[in-house]
């Protein structure tokens, strides 16, 4: 029962929420290309975040949730695909967290040290965003010690009052206990713990700065107000970041603590797999939260969305329907 529920959870989330998230991320990219965001690096940061988020969501469809729930797992093709796809999967899902760290750090410099802050060149930022992926790739190098493990299960069937046994052969992409411990620890540390710790420290300094300068917002300082909305949206995303990752981190800690029990009890493994599918789906919401956070908090983003896209879409629909009525 639990095994079936786990597959259904993976399939439902990756076939509905993930494609929807991809659409919202592309919409975020389009909105930040508006002239309203000229003269600021914020459009580049959010574009990079949305692209990495979409890469992670596509990773969910192809390698982690949708296709594997349909018993299509490319990592089980051979030893090479096992190593490379596990390395790719883990690196891709870690990358958005670090793009958010870079975004937070840039706003930290802008808010806390406004006199020293300089807008970085686009080419330099692109190199920085690309280097994030390759640095994470090097940290996940332990996946080259993964291999395909053959599992044999004896299946008993009763046919014409006779019991016939057959051997079912399956494969899993795995490694030794020590390598698995290191790889899983690196995954949770680089995807959640370290990014959150860095963002938490930067957030403290930014919140303190805004508390001290809050009066400027009431005096009509438009630049300060604009910085406030951008920063507050990032602070909100950082808070949502850790909240959505809590179930997934609990699952990882439990899977490490129950390693021996999981190898002995199939029912416990199925229960933990269900918990994993639910917690992983919740964590993936992080990959399309920026659109909703900006719509709610960032007034300029909301204005561009309402007047630049939503209003035009409604007008187009009305024109299209009226032409056929």
TrEMBL record:
Membrane found in the keyword field: yes
TM spans (from-to): 12-32, 44-67, 129-148, 188-207, 228-254, 274-297
Keyword terms: Membrane, Transmembrane, Transmembrane helix
Database matches in PROSITE patterns: G_PROTEIN_RECEP_F1_2 (PS50262)
A cellular component annotation (GO) from this entry: membrane
Segments forming domain G-protein coupled receptors family 1 profile: 24-294
Keyword Transcription (UniProt): no
InterPro entries: GPCR-Ligand_Int, GPCR_Rhodpsn_7TM
Localization: Membrane
Chain segments annotated as coiled-coil in the UniProt record: none
Protein name: G-protein coupled receptors family 1 profile domain-containing protein
């Amino acid at each position: 029962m639990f095994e079936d529920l786990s597959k259904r959870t993976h399939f439902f989330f990756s076939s509905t929420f993930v494609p929807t998230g991809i659409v919202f991320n592309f919409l975020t990219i389009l909105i930040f290309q508006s002239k309203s965001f000229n003269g600021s690096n914020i459009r580049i940061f959010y574009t990079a975040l949305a692209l990495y988020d979409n890469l992670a969501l596509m990773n969910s469809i192809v390698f982690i949730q949708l296709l594997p729930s349909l018993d299509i797992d490319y990592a089980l093709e051979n030893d090479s695909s096992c190593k490379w796809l596990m390395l790719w999967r883990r690196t891709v899902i870690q990358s958005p967290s670090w793009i958010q760290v870079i975004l937070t750090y840039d706003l930290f410099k802008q808010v806390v040290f406004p006199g020293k802050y300089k807008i970085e060149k686009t080419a330099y930022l692109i190199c920085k965003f690309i280097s994030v992926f390759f640095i994470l790739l090097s940290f996940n190098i332990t996946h080259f010690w993964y291999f395909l493990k053959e599992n044999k299960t004896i299946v008993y069937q009763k046919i014409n009052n006779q019991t016939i046994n057959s051997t079912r052969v399956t494969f899993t992409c795995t490694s030794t206990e020590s390598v698995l411990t290191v790889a899983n620890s690196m995954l949770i540390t680089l995807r959640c713990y370290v990014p959150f710790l860095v963002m938490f420290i930067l957030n403290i300094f930014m919140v303190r700065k805004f508390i001290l300068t809050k009066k400027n917002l009431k005096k009509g300082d438009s630049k300060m107000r604009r910085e406030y909305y951008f920063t507050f949206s990032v602070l909100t995303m950082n808070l949502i970041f850790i909240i959505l990752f809590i179930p997934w981190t609990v699952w990882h800690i439990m899977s490490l603590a129950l390693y021996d029990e999981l190898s002995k009890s199939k029912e416990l493994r199925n229960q933990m797999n269900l918990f994993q599918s639910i917690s992983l789906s919740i964590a993936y919401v992080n990959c399309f939260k920026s659109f909703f956070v900006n719509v709610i908090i960032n007034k300029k983003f909301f204005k561009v969305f309402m007047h630049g896209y939503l209003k035009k879409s409604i007008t187009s629909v009305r024109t299209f329907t009226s032409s056929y009525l």
